Amino acid sequence: MPRDESRPAAEGAGPGAARRSVVGELLLLASVAFPMLVFLGVAAQDYRRTLQAAHAELLAAAETMAGHARNVFRFEALALGATEDWLRGVADSDILASPRQYHARLAALKRFAGDDLGITVIGADGRPLVDSDRATPPRGIDLSDRAYFRWHRDHPGGEPHVAAPLRSRVSGETLFFLSLRRNGPGGEFAGVIAAAVRQSSFIQFWDRAASDPLDAISLFRDDGLLLARRPAIDPEAGTRLDPDGPIGRAAASGVEGRVFGSTSPIDGVERMNVLRRIEGYPAFIVHGMPRSAVLAPWRDRLVAYGVLAGGATAALLSLSLLSRRRARALDLANATLEQRVEERTAEIQAGEARLRLLAREVDHRAKNALSVVQATLRLTPRRDAESFAASVEGRVLALARAQTLLAADQWRGASLGTLLRTELAPFVAREGEGPLAELRGPAVLVPPVATQPLAMVAHELATNAVKHGALSAPGGRVLVTWEVAGDVGAAPEGGAGRLRLRWEERGGPPVAGPPAQRGFGSRVLQSVVRGQLGGRLDLHWHAGGLVAELEVPLSAVARAGMAGAG
């Protein structure tokens, strides 16, 4: 009955195929969505960690800078208090009369408080009386127009005042002052003691503490007046905080240690900021990191994440498409499933038969190899342990080389020429000199059963030539020739085709004739050629060297159509 080819195909297009189609579409969707979801999740988590690390670094740096400013103000306040106590009740005329004495005291106080601090005592008329930097204060300078001087003149009391930054009329440096009012015996205004700090000393410290050249660090007075900034700006610009801006609102709220964002009106850079107050003084520090610099490493990693996600998407998409194609192929294959199962069953049975045959063959080869080794051990003379070990080792190595040749050709046989070249390798190919052994003959494939015996024959002849024959003397040579005689295809089992091999030594020590008694090598050769190969061996001791002729029936050796010389 003819087979209905359409029925399996129709069955393959049924509910199972529909389900596989839906699964394939879902896999395609997942192959795109899943890597992207993972990418977004990893990127978001990395973004949060990057901001958290930046916040921690920002808070730590702001605390360090606030501590530095607090120390500077504290040393200024100590210097002002010590100077005010020391000069209490001292008239301006006394100071002007002994300027070097008072300068020495101020200079010592400066060394204690720090070299960046400068102390100046100003009279009620605005003239400098003495300072810590010069033994004689400069003449012709009037400081009565300075804001800090006017503030103390108009505000009785002993509270220190943080003055706006200004440019020194003596050195041209940008300074800001912490100043204290001097009172006369009746509380009247007697002048000002001003402790000046170079703005550059703050900026130098900030340069060392900041992690990025674009970090902005600002010192503000409580009313929003800018005292110092990195990067520096004009000290006389009178820059103030916008009370409605992010920093102004943060300062007004009194909240510290909270990171907030803002765009600087000075350089237009968007920064992440933190505010820290200077404890005990009417000032605060604002430290800002550029948001772009904070997120730059994250953006670099984002590119790497994107490449990985894209690669994963492409790989999963390829796998999904491949899976869908294979599912479709499976639907088509279901139409002939029964036939394929039958064919596969037959293949498995054939494979099992081959495995059993191979197991028997391996068992047979192993037994043969062990028999050869056993015969070698039995025939090798035991004159002394060292010579016995050397003899056995040489013969076993010859068997091993033959075994390697058989394994290389999957036990189909071994090339006779390759077998002989392997045994005579030191004498056939020599760098810079001509060969000591020459091989001539057609391509012949030696079957597995004859490979190891022929290897043993070549080994025994070569060993004898090295010890006693042509290869033991300078200039000695060996010529090995072979041919196949008779009709190989006529009756191989009857021996009509035969392999003839001739071993001829020349140039060796003179040979007087056959040895008085047959040696061990001769017995091994006769045993192998006659006993294992069923052939004939003739040994001739000519004056020029040994000639060995052996003839083996092709029931043991079969010719093969191999390309090139054997």
UniProtKB/TrEMBL annotation:
Gene3D superfamilies: Histidine kinase-like ATPase, C-terminal domain, PAS domain. Keywords: ATP-binding, Kinase, Membrane, Nucleotide-binding, Phosphoprotein, Transferase, Transmembrane, Transmembrane helix. Pfam families: dCache_1_like, HWE_HK. Its EC number is 2.7.13.3. It comes from the Bacteria. It catalyses: ATP + protein L-histidine = ADP + protein N-phospho-L-histidine. The chain crosses the membrane at residues 26-44. InterPro entries: HATPase_C_sf (IPR036890), His-kinase-like_sensor (IPR054327), Sig_transdc_His_kinase_HWE (IPR011102). Residues 361-443 form the Signal transduction histidine kinase HWE region domain. It is an enzyme of class 2 (transferase). GO terms for molecular function: ATP binding; protein histidine kinase activity. PANTHER family: ETHYLENE RESPONSE SENSOR PROTEIN, TWO-COMPONENT SYSTEM SENSOR PROTEIN. This is histidine kinase.
